[in-house]
Design brief:
Shape: globular
Radius of gyration: 24 Å
Number of helices: 17
Largest sheet: 8 strands, mixed
Bound molecules: ligand NA7
Helix content: 25-40%
Strand content: 15-25%
Length: 584
């Protein structure tokens, strides 16, 4: 879709009296200085419990709530967990940490929080990140707006009142004019579809539901772990030194490269703090909002020696440098990608003593960077330890989980004290499928997306009026807090505008959805990552319903994404069907 075709939806929307009103506010704090009267919905939402309901108290929900409170709205967060944090509340497995620089992967909107919070490591471990989130919540005084242990089961759009009705697992109901979903993209853990999962009598933990302090009980134990994705890699390298024996069951090896984490001294933190404006500017300008920026060099045409020298330099740097600061053709050109994969293959071989084990650890069915590339700290060296065994379950699959461990196809039994499932998530749409979303005329979101995701701006869905998705499908998955801040800001600006204009109904159009979905697919063309099965392309082989590869994320440049969303705002939201007051 081009910008032109987005404009082509002009005049399609039914806009009752709001057409042509160009009163777009870009200042989210409108009215706070006391000079402008604060907009309000007046009595329009009187029959409803809230103006806005937010599902989820992770980063998306927290910032949404902050903005709704700033607007003076009656808003509430409903959260399934017993505290705030979202991803960083649930994922407490050993070694869980950012693999983006702490100081670029956080909220940027509050100078006060940036001034007061100190990071102690370049890549924050989960406990510190959770503390940060708790600090933000306290600082912004948001806990009073959060209701925990509330798992929403059903979200129904009530046409008679143009409002949302949510029902939780205790059959309590909540109503609101607008609904913000802040339910994350990796929120529904999946167990493997291997027979016997419920037969196992020992301790069995999914990494996303790791028991408090579980790692302290692993000393001397026989531990097995299924999976070698980002989560498994962090878990394996952390527990391997402490367990009695570790068996890693690997179906598909992933490319991974050194994280090179380090402590941050007080002096260094002050330098980072002074650098914040530049850090966030660089993120805002870059393709996927990270501080690392690639180049457009021709990898294949570059002399081999020069290429290697450059890659060696990147390899020695922290974080995603070796994933993102490379030439963009590595992500689009098979030959360029093969060269870079070969460079990483050499690195792995140099670190793993047994060549047969190294063979197993080197991916053969996808190139470097074409799946989400985890970063590691001593992962490969783990496989040189006497107490660690790598089992290839691609050629010798797990036949079943038994009472005492598991059995592979060659009839080898592995007896285990603890079995760890690092088997990932029903990603992206899974968070939505876990709730029965029902829109106009009983349309189910699950059905709408069953043949492929369709959205408008990744923020809204046709037939689901007044619902805004923060980190919904078709949004940027790169530097997630950057994407969250933008999506929340856009949504808050719309709701503020809706208040000013008495708009009580906002729905995406067929034309808008078709054009946006086409644009998302267009952006994804030519990317090698979209030729590969992974959670990012919507594939999870553990689900009963078979999932085809799909375009789950926005693959174009972030500045382009934002530009398109801004255009919709500046057109007075005319791309939507809008209704005022009590209009049917
Ligand atoms: P991932 O990246 O989806 O990894 C899941 C791993 O589990 C992966 O190695 C899978 O192998 C393996 N798996 C899943 N099901 C099975 C079965 N049935 N049998 C054997 N092996 C299986 O999830 P993560 O939690 O590691 O990471 C998700 C994201 O969270 C990550 O990218 C970060 O952004 C945070 P497969 O590759 O499917 O052969």
């Amino acid at each position: 879709m081009t910008q032109g075709s987005a404009n082509g939806t002009d005049g399609v929307s039914k806009v009752n009296g709001v057409n042509g009103t160009n009163g777009i506010h870009t200042n989210g704090t409108n009215g706070v200085n006391g000079t402008t009267p604060k907009p309000s919905f007046g009595s329009l939402n009187d029959g409803l419990d809230y103006d806005v309901l937010i599902i989820g108290a992770g980063l998306s929900g927290i910032y949404s709530m902050y903005r709704m409170a700033q607007l003076g709205l009656r808003a509430k967060i409903l959260e399934a967990g017993s505290s705030e944090g979202g991803t960083w509340f649930w994922n407490r497995y050993p070694g869980a940490r950012f693999d983006s620089e702490s100081y670029s992967y956080i909220f940027s909107f509050s100078p006060e929080i940036l001034a007061e919070w100190d990071w102690t490591e370049h890549f924050s471990p989960q406990p510190e990140t959770l503390k940060y989130i708790e600090f933000v919540t306290r600082k912004l005084d948001l806990r009073k707006h959060m209701q925990f242990d509330t798992r929403i089961q059903r979200a129904q759009f009530v046409q008679a009142t143009n409002s949302w009705k949510l029902t939780d697992d205790q059959q309590r109901t909540y109503t609101s004019r607008y609904l913000i979903t802040a339910i994350g993209i990796l929120n529904e853990p999946t167990l493997p579809n291997i027979p016997g999962v419920s037969d196992y009598k020992g301790e069995a933990w999914h990494t996303a539901r790791w028991p408090q302090g579980g790692e302290h009980t692993l000393a001397g134990k026989r531990v097995g772990i299924i999976g070698t994705g980002a989560t498994a890699i962090q878990t394996i390298q952390t527990i391997a030194p402490n367990v009695g024996h570790l068996t890693v069951f690997q179906r598909t090896p992933n490319w991974t490269a050194p994280l090179r984490n380090d402590k941050i001294s007080k002096e260094e933190m002050e330098k980072i703090r002074a650098d914040y404006p530049d850090i966030f500017r660089r993120c805002a300008e870059s393709y996927s909002c990270f501080i690392h920026v690639g180049d457009n060099n021709d990898t294949v045409a570059t002399p081999a020696e020069e290429r290697e020298r450059h890659w060696e330099h990147l390899y020695a740097q922290r974080g995603f440098t070796k994933v993102l600061a490379i030439s963009s053709d590595i992500y689009t050109n098979h030959e360029a990608n093969a060269l870079y994969s070969a460079f990483h293959e050499k690195k792995i071989r140099a670190r793993v003593n047994d060549p047969e084990v190294a063979d197993l650890l080197i991916p053969t069915n996808h190139g470097f960077g074409t799946r989400r590339t985890p970063l590691e700290s001593g992962y490969y060296e783990v496989f040189n330890q006497d107490n660690v065994k790598l089992v290839d379950i691609r050629n010798n699959p797990i036949e079943r989980i038994t009472e005492t461990g598991l059995r592979t196809a060659d009839q080898t039994d592995y007896d285990l004290d603890v079995l760890v499932y690092a088997t990932g998530f029903d990603a992206v749409t899974g968070s939505f499928n876990a709730i029965d979303f029902e829109g106009i005329d009983g349309v189910k979101l699950k059905d709408v997306w069953s043949e492929g995701i369709q959205t408008f701006l990744g923020l809204t869905v046709k037939n689901f009026p007044n619902m805004f998705m923060i980190m919904g499908p078709h949004q940027m998955f790169g530097n997630i807090p950057r994407s969250i801040e933008y999506a929340v800001q856009w949504t808050a600006e719309f709701i503020e505008w809706a208040m000013e204009h008495g708009v009580t109904y906002c729905e995406a159009t067929d034309e808008g959805v078709a054009a946006w979905t086409e644009h998302v697919h267009e952006c994804g063309k030519g990317l090698l990552a979209n030729e590969v099965d992974s959670w990012m392309t919507g594939v999870n082989k553990n689900l009963a319903h078979k999932q085809k590869r799909s375009m789950t994320r926005y693959n174009g440049p972030a500045p382009g994404y934002r530009k398109r969303c801004e255009e919709v705002k500046h057109r007075g939201y005319r791309d939507f069907v809008l209704k005022k007051g009590g209009e049917a």
